[in-house]
Structure formats: structure tokens, C-alpha cells
Write a structure and sequence with these properties.
Length: 261
């Protein structure tokens, strides 16, 4: 589960992202890409990043190490950009970051080597499970680093939690957006990937990952639940019920792939 570091230096913003992530240096001398609690979708995006990233790791997929970052808003007091100063001020406390992968490049489905069928299928099945709408040819959210694929940017997954209406029923969805997945053309082993997912993601795994969500991210004024414990229980229930839909969303991905080839 994520360890905690303290930000010691704001290095540079990454303006490619709408939520203005940044590279920071921490007290362990490491460099990290920070997703700020005060940006965009706020704590919900961080919850999605944490849950998805740790689930991916459990499935054997490559994700940069996730860490919790303690941020003192004074870190940005000398930052000339007022937008960044306000963002740091709004993000005091715990934020989420990924290990910075130097010299990594965005995956290019045309120029880069094709992934294996097993890897492509595993990533497609994983994204269907977490309802990730943001792994498309236009925005693959994968990096090539040392000739391997690394998954990043899962803040758009688990989108049900932006509106908890009928959330239990929505866990059974087939996830039609999988038709736009950048790796779908290579995902020829989806049945096996679905079986692997169902075997690896157990109640124990889900409870451990959900239990790592900082309480402060679950107790905002926007929370529809009275306590952090109730909020965690809802995430756990959704993730476990989503496993019941594995046959349906694997069939949907297979159907979408058949229309491509």
C-alpha cells in the first residue's frame, strides 16, 4: 500500500493535464508526478487513482509506484503563477503522486511495438472492470519506459462515484465505451484475461486497497455518506459486485473487437 512522503520542492507544472499536475521532489530525494486534491474533480480523482493503480498492480500490470504526498501550501509561496499558488493552497494535506519515470514517452499505437495479446487483453479487461473511459488512441494514458508499457492517469475511472444514484445497479454495466480502447485490436485473449481478473481480485484484496484511502478524502462536504467507514463500504461493495459482471463486460469487449477486424 502507498507509503507517505513529504513534498520539499515544487519542480515544474505539467500543463498537458487539465488538472495541472506537477513534478515535485520529496523528502526521500525522489521525484514524483503529483495529482492535487484541490484540482479538477478533487478528492474523487485521487480515490480513483489509488484504487485503480493498486488493482492494476495486483493484476500484474505495470503502474509507477503510488505514494501519498504531504503538502505544505507554503511550498508555493515563491511561485509567480497565481493559479499554481491557489492550487497548492487548496491542496494542503495529503495528495497522491506517481513515481516520475524519466525519459518515458507516451505510447504511440502506430510507432511503438505492438503489445502481446496477453498484456493488451489484461489491460482492456482491467479498464472495463474499473470503467476507465480514458485509454483511447487520442489519449492512451500509457507510457513506454525501458521498452515496457506503464499505466498512468486513472482519475477518470470509477466514474459512478460522481453521482451515487443507482450505483449498485450500475456496477453490472457492460461498459460500451470499451469499443474506443487503444489496445482493443491486440486484445485476442480476453476470455483468459477475464478469468485472471476474477481470480486475482478477491474480497481481501479489495478491502485492503479501499482501506488505504485517506479518511480526509472520504469525508468532504460532498460525500453522500455519513461516515468514512460507510463510504469505504460502498466502494468495496461496488468493486465486488463489478466482478459479477466480468462475463458481460468481457463479452462486450469481444464484440467490439470483432467489429474492428
Amino acid at each position: 500500500m502507498p507509503r507517505t512522503v513529504t513534498a520539499t520542492r515544487y519542480v515544474t507544472p505539467l500543463r498537458e493535464g487539465g488538472s495541472l499536475p506537477a513534478i515535485i521532489e520529496a523528502d526521500d530525494a525522489g521525484l514524483y508526478v503529483v495529482k492535487f486534491r484541490g484540482a479538477g474533480q478533487g478528492a474523487k480523482a485521487l480515490v480513483a487513482e489509488l484504487i485503480a493503480g493498486e488493482l492494476a498492480r495486483e493484476l500484474g500490470l505495470r503502474v509507477p509506484e503510488l505514494v501519498l504526498v504531504e503538502l505544505d501550501p507554503a511550498l508555493g509561496r515563491n511561485e509567480p503563477d497565481s493559479e499554481i499558488r491557489e492550487l497548492l493552497k487548496a491542496s494542503a494535506g495529503l495528495n497522491l503522486a506517481l513515481d516520475y519515470l524519466p525519459a518515458s514517452v507516451t505510447f504511440d499505437p502506430v510507432a511503438d511495438p505492438a503489445p502481446t495479446a496477453a498484456e493488451a487483453s489484461g489491460i482492456v479487461a482491467f479498464d472495463a472492470y474499473i470503467t476507465n473511459v480514458d485509454r483511447t488512441p487520442r489519449n492512451p494514458n500509457m507510457l513506454t519506459w525501458h521498452r515496457n508499457l506503464w499505466l498512468i492517469d486513472h482519475g477518470a475511472s470509477l466514474y459512478f462515484h460522481h453521482s451515487w444514484d443507482d450505483w449498485e445497479a450500475r456496477s453490472q454495466g457492460r461498459f460500451a465505451p470499451i469499443k474506443d480502447h487503444v489496445l482493443l485490436p491486440w486484445a485476442t485473449a480476453l476470455t483468459e484475461a477475464g478469468k485472471h481478473l476474477g481470480a486475482r481480485i478477491t474480497r481481501e484484496v479489495v478491502e485492503r486497497i479501499v482501506g488505504a484511502i485517506p479518511e480526509a478524502w472520504l469525508t468532504s462536504t460532498e460525500s453522500p455518506f455519513p461516515t468514512a467507514e460507510a463510504h469505504r463500504a460502498a466502494y468495496t461493495t461496488w468493486l465486488l459486485r463489478r466482478l459479477e459482471a466480468v462475463p458481460a463486460f468481457i463479452e462486450e469487449a469481444d464484440r467490439a473487437r470483432a467489429q474492428l477486424v
